[in-house]
Amino acid sequence: MALWADKYQPKALDKFVLHKGIADNLKKLVATGDCPHTLFYGPPGAGKRTLVMALLREIYGPGAEKIRVETRPWTIELPTRKLELELTTVSSNYHVELSPGDVGGSNDRYVVQEIIKDLAKNRPLDVATGNKGFKVLVLNEVDRLSREAQQSLRRTMEKYSAGCRLVMTCANISKVMDPVRSRCLCVRVAAPSSEVVQEQLYAVARKEALQVCRVQQCPLREDQAVAPADWEAYIAEIAGDIMAEQSAKKLYQVRGKLYELLANCIPPELLLRTLLLELLKKLDDEIKARPRATPDPRADITELAARYEHRLQEGQKPIFHIEAFVAQFMSRYKNWQLTAFG
Amino acid sequence: MTVAQPWVEKYRPRNVDEVAHQEEVVSTLKRSLETANLPHLLFYGPPGTGKTSTALAIARQLYGPELMKTRVMELNASDERGINVVRKKVKSFAAAAVGAPAAGYPCPPYKLLILDEADSMTQDAQNALRRTMEQYSKVTRFCFICNYVSRIIEPLASRCAKFRFRPLHQGVMRDRIEFICARESVSLDPEAFQLLASISGGDLRKAVTTLQSAVRLSGGSVDRQSILDVSGEIPQAAITRLLAACRSGVFDNVQQQVTDLIAEGYPAQQVLLQLQAEVLAAPDAPDAPDAVPARPRALVCEALAQCDKALQDGADEFLQLLHVGAQVQRALAAA
């Protein structure tokens, strides 16, 4: 049995319900035969990759769906040393997909300068039908590329545009530099509103004759609890800890929990953001419970989170910054309680 | 299959005369071109005002398309330009003797080295150029192109004739855009042009790229909406809602608006830009409705600037926008 997320994923551009406007525009683009470099941006889960796959299918026909996954080692000759790295690519006869950000560090520059250039340089083989005279390189998460890597991408985009088109996706377009953006057709992919999500869920449920949630219980109750992801629950627990007691001892306990989350590969930015949202929610409850005119502490707390997340990007070890945020929050929160409630 | 050329390349000016709007620069350069006696050049100004185009046009007029290949070298930021490159590649190009001139062009006895985006070169690399420039000035002229003249070290700047390129005003832009539209048989609404001009802010390249994207998506006739779709501009209503939420003084409203903006996938820096425009456009007389007096205005601008820097460093969009929202709210509440 296929996962429903896969089963109901639209495969062709005319099957799109959510991003119908975008899909229609993409169809027009392909029809004119002039496909520019494209950059899809939008929050995670909005459907960027689904659009990319459908676009490929539109250009090359079903052949683009026969994919193979390869992990192959690359050796790059640098003037001073030899760099060896492994990169996973997903490719069909017509396209190659890779996430250059995975390489990490400052090495991603060489991925762009050598590997991507290499892939872009080789003209596509003449594969009978469906050949458009160019191939497509799909680059995922270009926002994770360093500035140097993006600078190098610029030149590659112009030089090899005759035989290769880049299709890129990213979540945070602020991190993609202007010169790269201005060379692409930028397509914004918005997240669906909750009504649309609901509609789709109903549609799926109808088709599946409502076997929904037989895991837990059936039929669903009005107040059916949806279990949050365990890491989210864990962060909520941390938020509760911090609100309950503000002391060095507590900070030490929280540190252990933070370490555990980081060790389980929860990205530190996400951790900090979720933690802030949980704290804001709890503060909100507290303010509502005691409706006296008090200064709203939430702006201050947001400022703290924004400041420490910014530093986290520049620094080396995330734990310092997250812990600093927690400590600062404890101090502010205690002060606020003293002034607000005496 | 012919590969469609981007219009920016297709309609790049071919000679100095064609360069739009930069009258002073053009007239000075034309005189130098007549005598074929060129100083070292330094072009600076905002993006899309014709700096690179002018440099390439000079090269073409001096040497003609054939000789250009050997006499002109162009290096931009996408080429490796560390100090090693300056020491080897640049120096060997600068030192080489010039070949025979081509017929029909002035072909002065020197080569042209164009360093595009020179402000992204390191200080060391720039320093390494100083001596090279003087040593080989008989056979090589340098042309530096940059956005920020302050990033070019003083010793280099003082060796060059400086030319400032101004942002294009609407009239000039209209001429050029209409010219392209006529050539490509595209019909453009006057309203759409207005929008195009205001989005591009004097950057002709941006205007042309936006226009071409719009044409690709919506075919021969371009209206306001299709420009809006491709420009990445945020609908005014969303920004107005955000500002209204800030005015309301309730933190929840701000959080809601920011969450919505992020879910829609709008670029955060664009939000800042349009929020700034909105705040600056508000009346500053204290008794006017929705007024933003001078002090909060300054505070808002500072918050926006700091946020832009943080975003540039790669900070999280949601946290930064929420922070800005809270700051704006506080500034307005203090008024």
TrEMBL record, chain A:
One of its GO terms (molecular function) is DNA clamp loader activity. It is found in: Nucleus. GO terms for cellular component: DNA replication factor C complex; nucleus. SMART domains: AAA (SM00382). InterPro entries: AAA+_ATPase, ATPase_AAA_core, DNA_pol3_clamp-load_cplx_C, DNA_Rep/Repair_Clamp_Loader, P-loop_NTPase. One of its GO terms (biological process) is DNA strand elongation involved in DNA replication. This is Replication factor C subunit 3.
TrEMBL record, chain B:
Keywords: ATP-binding, DNA replication, Nucleotide-binding, Nucleus. It is found in: Nucleus. Residues 37-169 form the AAA+ ATPase domain. SUPFAM superfamilies: P-loop containing nucleoside triphosphate hydrolases (SSF52540), post-AAA+ oligomerization domain-like (SSF48019). One of its GO terms (molecular function) is ATP binding. GO terms for biological process: DNA repair; DNA-templated DNA replication. It holds the Pfam family RCF1-5-like_lid. GO terms for cellular component: DNA replication factor C complex; nucleus. The keyword Nucleus applies. InterPro entries: AAA+_ATPase, ATPase_AAA_core, DNA_pol3_clamp-load_cplx_C, DNA_Rep/Repair_Clamp_Loader, P-loop_NTPase, Rep_factorC_C, RFC_lid. It comes from the Eukaryota. Belongs to the activator 1 small subunits family. Heterotetramer of subunits RFC2, RFC3, RFC4 and RFC5 that can form a complex with RFC1. This is Replication factor C subunit 2.
